[in-house]
């Protein structure tokens, strides 16, 4: 067997690593018998020279097998599904999609992440609900899937330990943005959930990991191939991420928007994503014959209230008091009797008459991050109440002085610079209705037929 320096050299010189070589590397990472500098050197060699799709599939398989792989009761065969998003601004899809899928009879062991930099995290959103416990053991996850159908939890210690080590080293060696390393990290964790089907929401645009559609497509195709190579039916949607998803950004405001969506009052873009991602899963698992039937089934579960009941049951199963869950899910709920509200609110006003041509989600996210809604380093706390609500839509005609953004903040108040930066997120135009027509969010689908 080659030594670690030999393996690094082979990759550094552009060679393809064999299955045995990748297996040896991941084994040494997992049992911590490799030096961090060697791991860093190998990751940099992979960043520089890339990996073939076959190498990426082996890397992913070995990462997945580095820890516990979940197993489910036989009766759930074909029913265990999940989705992953590459992250965005106001991306609250999971909170609606997981209960919608549970309402359609699926089992959803959704293992989610926390927010970092400008992207929000599903776990932070849920933790704005007092009592919601995202830390559940594998046995507890099984129990909740059995009784409710879905749970949304944090990564457990035993799943994919190799990813924890590799991600830590990637973070400090500027090797995060490597297609094979991203694919290995994302798909190994989903593989360890032993899913029948996985849907990926790969975003492109100024508030996304990849700014252009072509790069996002390349990542999506790789993720789909590698997911299928592990035996999970995997498909993807490419969706635009320039503004915000829905109208709310910030943890507790996003929870309120999700509850409203589950009560049938959701914004069109959020519902489109929920329906398409859910519909793809229903199609991939064979319970509907085409995507439009899948979309309808998901939509019915939301509009008819079944998904809201699942969300309520999930909250209770994950530690929220029956009274609080009941209040949040009631019609005309007084949300802030349960969810903390920020100390201060302020309206930002439009500087002129015009049509709303653009709202830059990246700018909103960056300023809200500075005001405490996000974190810069993993482990830092976030302020759940800080956020913003968009009061206008693309294409809308506005008069000078109209309120366009409701900012929720704590002390200290935003600086004049921060307010003017927020104002710069809004672009007004005249007679631009043609360009400003809201477009669909999902631009392309990648089918599970993409194979290695
Ligand atoms: N999310 C992951 O789980 N892994 C990664 O490498 C990235 C996002 I980038």
What features would you describe in this structure?
The chain is built from 18 helices and 13 strands. The strands form four sheets. Strands 1-4-5-13 form a four-stranded mixed β-sheet, with helices on both faces. A four-stranded antiparallel β-sheet has the order 6-9-11-7, with helices on both faces. A three-stranded antiparallel β-sheet has the order 10-8-12. β4, α10 and β5 form a beta-alpha-beta unit. It is globular, with a radius of gyration of 22 Å. Bound molecules: 5-iodouracil. 5-iodouracil binds next to α9.
Ligand identities? 5-iodouracil
Q: Compute the number of helices.
A: 18
For the record, the CATH architecture of the largest domain stands as 3-Layer(aba) Sandwich
CATH topology of the largest domain: Pyrimidine Nucleoside Phosphorylase, Chain A, domain 2
Class from helix and strand fractions: alpha/beta
Largest sheet: 4 strands, mixed
Low-confidence stretches: none
Q: Looking at this structure, what is the CATH superfamily of the largest domain?
A: Nucleoside phosphorylase/phosphoribosyltransferase catalytic domain
Radius of gyration, in angstroms, nearest whole number: 22 Å
Shape: globular
Percentage of β-strand residues: 5-15%
The first-to-last residue Cα distance is: 27 Å
Order of the strands making up the biggest sheet: 1-4-5-13
The overall number of domains is 3
Write down how many β-strands occur, each being a DSSP E stretch of 2 or more residues: 13
Helix amount: 40-55%
CATH class of the largest domain: Alpha Beta
Please tell me the overall pLDDT.
95
């Amino acid at each position: 067997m080659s030594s670690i320096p030999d393996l690094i050299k082979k990759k550094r010189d552009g060679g393809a690593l064999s299955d045995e070589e990748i297996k040896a590397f991941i084994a040494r990472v997992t049992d911590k018998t490799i030096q961090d500098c060697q791991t860093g050197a190998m990751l940099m060699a992979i960043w520089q020279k890339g990996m073939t799709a076959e190498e990426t599939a082996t890397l992913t398989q070995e990462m997945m097998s580095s820890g516990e792989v979940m197993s489910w009761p036989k009766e759930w065969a074909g029913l265990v599904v999940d989705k992953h998003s590459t992250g965005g601004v106001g991306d609250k899809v999971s909170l609606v999609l997981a209960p919608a899928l549970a309402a359609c009879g699926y089992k959803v062991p959704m293992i989610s992440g926390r927010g970092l930099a400008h992207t929000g995290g599903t776990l932070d959103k849920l933790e704005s609900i007092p009592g919601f416990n995202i830390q559940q053991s594998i046995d507890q996850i099984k129990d909740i899937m059995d009784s409710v159908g879905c749970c949304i939890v944090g990564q457990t210690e035993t799943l994919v330990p190799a990813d924890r080590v590799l991600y830590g080293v990637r973070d400090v060696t500027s090797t995060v943005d490597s297609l094979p390393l991203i694919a290995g990290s994302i798909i190994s964790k989903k593989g360890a959930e032993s899913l029948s089907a996985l849907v990926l929401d790969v975003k492109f645009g100024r508030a996304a990991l990849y700014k252009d559609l072509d790069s996002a497509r390349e990542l999506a195709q790789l993720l789909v191939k590698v997911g299928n190579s592990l035996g999970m039916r995997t498909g993807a949607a490419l969706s635009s991420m320039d503004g915000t998803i829905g109208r709310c950004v910030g943890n507790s405001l996003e929870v309120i928007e999700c509850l409203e969506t589950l009560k049938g009052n959701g914004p069109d873009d959020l519902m489109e994503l929920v329906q398409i991602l859910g519909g793809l899963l229903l199609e991939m698992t064979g319970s509907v014959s085409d995507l439009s039937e899948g979309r309808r089934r998901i939509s019915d579960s939301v509009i008819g209230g079944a998904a809201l009941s699942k969300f309520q049951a999930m909250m209770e199963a994950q530690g929220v008091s029956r009274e609080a869950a009941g209040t949040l899910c009631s019609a005309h709920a007084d949300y802030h009797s349960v969810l903390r509200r920020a100390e201060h609110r302020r309206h930002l006003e439009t500087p002129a008459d015009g049509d709303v041509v653009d709202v830059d989600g990246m700018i909103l996210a960056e300023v809200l991050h500075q005001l405490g809604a996000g974190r810069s380093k993993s482990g830092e706390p976030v302020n759940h109440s800080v956020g913003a609500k968009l009061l206008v839509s693309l294409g809308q005609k506005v008069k000078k002085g109209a309120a366009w953004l409701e900012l929720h903040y704590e002390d200290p108040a935003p600086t004049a610079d921060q307010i003017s930066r927020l104002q710069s997120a809004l672009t007004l135009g005249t007679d631009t209705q043609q360009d400003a027509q809201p477009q669909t969010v999902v631009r392309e689908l990648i089918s599970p037929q993409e194979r290695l």
